TrEMBL record:
Domain of life, source organism: Bacteria
Pfam family, one: MerR_1
Coiled-coil ranges from the UniProt annotation: 99-140
A GO MF label: DNA binding
Domain named HTH merR-type: residues: 17-84
Species annotation: Marichromatium purpuratum 984
Keywords in alphabetical order: Coiled coil, DNA-binding
CDD domains in UniProt: HTH_GnyR
Full protein name: MerR family transcriptional regulator
Amino acid sequence: MSTPTNPHPEQEPGGTTFTIGELAREFDITTRTIRFYEDQGLLSPTRSGTRRLYRRRDRARLKLILRGKRLGFTLAEMREAFDLYDEAHGEAQQLRYYLSVLEEKRQHLLQQREDLEETMRELEQSYAHCQQLLEQQERERGDTQRMAS
């Protein structure tokens, strides 16, 4: 008979907890990063002596934090979404908030894309103009060298 890996199975239904090292390896981040998110109030592990034990909820939140970070969410926005979710009727309210933040991020990215496309057009025009000037100078230099010989 095997010994359970979780010394406190009552802390999580099914006895599933994760150590800070396990989460760091799974998400390819440092333990310092995880402690930072904990200090910011985004994660709340239980303690077994000095050992942190993260529940499935913390793991899911960490995954959402990292995804939100890639999408440009601030930690304050993530905290607000988590707080809304934790409230009694938070799910609908959280979804409305999340939709408004997503729309704001979407509009920002669309504007960035438009700006980038405009910058690319200007860059292409400048490139073509410089290439034209260089070819003209090289032709003129070639004409001058032929005339001198």
